[in-house]
């Protein structure tokens, strides 16, 4: 995987350089989503996380479903790939459950969540059905942007522009954080999750492009 590395607030976020039309389409699509997120939420990172994590939890579930059905049709072992995709979806859902405690979504934001999820689910379902490599590349680029957003969120907390409130209990339990954990600690572990999803999905896309069938890993995130 050809990458460039972008340091951001002391954190390295490798960028997969687009190669070919499908990569450029995936990258352009994610940049379009980023434009709308920046326009709508600006630096309201807690509220941004609530909406975007709702979307981020979709790809793993869609990919897991379609790969499960494919394995059934072909009567073959998926070699842990389905399990990893479903774990990814569940991990993103836990991000959402955590940030709901940090930034309570308004009724309007809840409506945005419903509409955005409905549109994105259907778009991603058909994209994965016909072009799984591109679908995984979309997630890889989406997670690159997520890492950038959480790094910016961390910078805002460190600058005192966002209150470093105590971590929600659900986050303490899920990530095994200390009793005195704060929002800053939560953002750091969530960013690590997103970085893991970024690398795995870019790898899946690379393997599919090479005609290989990806295998699952024991990675939690």
Task: Explain what the structure shows.
The chain is mainly alpha-helical. Helix content is about 70%, strand content about 5%. It is built from 7 helices and 2 strands; from the N terminus they run ββααααααα. The chain has a two-stranded antiparallel sheet with strand order 1-2. Helix 1 (about 20-40) packs parallel to helix 5 (about 130-160) and helix 2 (about 45-75) runs parallel beside helix 4. The chain is globular and about 50 Å long. The model is unreliable at about 1-10 (pLDDT under 50). Keywords: Electron transport, Iron, Membrane, Metal-binding, Oxidoreductase, Respiratory chain, Transmembrane, Transmembrane helix, Transport. This is Alternative oxidase. It is found in: Membrane. Its cofactor is Fe cation. It comes from Kordiimonas lipolytica.
Q: What string gives the helices and strands in order?
A: EEHHHHHHH
Distance between the termini: 20 Å
What is the 3D form?
globular
Q: Structural class of the secondary elements?
A: mainly alpha
Helical fraction equals over 70%
Q: Tell how many strands the DSSP assignment holds.
A: 2
- Mean pLDDT across all amino acids: 88
Transmembrane segments: 111-131
Main location: membrane
Organism: Kordiimonas lipolytica
Pfam family, one: AOX
Key terms:
221 residues, mainly alpha, two-stranded antiparallel sheet, 2 strands, globular
Topology:
Layout (H helix, E strand, L loop, with lengths): L2 E6 L2 E6 L4 H21 L3 H30 L6 H22 L4 H24 L1 H27 L10 H7 L7 H27 L12
Antiparallel strand pairs: 1-2
Subcellular location: Membrane
Protein name: Alternative oxidase
Pfam family, one: AOX
């Amino acid at each position: 995987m050809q990458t460039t590395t972008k340091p951001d607030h002391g954190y390295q976020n490798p960028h997969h350089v687009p190669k070919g039309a499908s990569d450029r389409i995936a990258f352009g699509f994610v940049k379009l989503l980023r434009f709308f997120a920046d326009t709508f939420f600006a630096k309201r990172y807690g509220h941004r996380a609530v909406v975007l994590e709702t979307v981020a939890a979709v790809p793993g579930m869609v990919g897991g479903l379609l790969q499960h059905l494919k394995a059934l049709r072909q009567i073959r072992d998926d070699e842990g790939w389905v399990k990893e995709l479903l774990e990814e979806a569940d991990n993103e859902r836990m991000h959402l459950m955590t940030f709901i405690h940090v930034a309570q979504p308004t009724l309007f934001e809840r409506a945005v969540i419903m509409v955005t999820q409905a549109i994105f689910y259907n778009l991603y379902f058909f994209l994965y059905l016909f072009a799984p490599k591109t679908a995984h590349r979309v997630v890889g680029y989406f997670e690159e942007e997520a890492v950038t957003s959480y790094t910016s969120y961390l910078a805002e907390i460190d600058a005192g522009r966002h209150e470093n409130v105590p971590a929600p209990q659900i986050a303490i339990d899920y990530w095994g954080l200390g009793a005195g954990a704060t929002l800053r600690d939560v953002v750091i572990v969530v960013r690590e999750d997103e970085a893991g999803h970024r690398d795995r999905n870019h790898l899946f896309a690379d393997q599919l492009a090479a005609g290989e069938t990806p295998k699952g890993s024991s990675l939690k995130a």
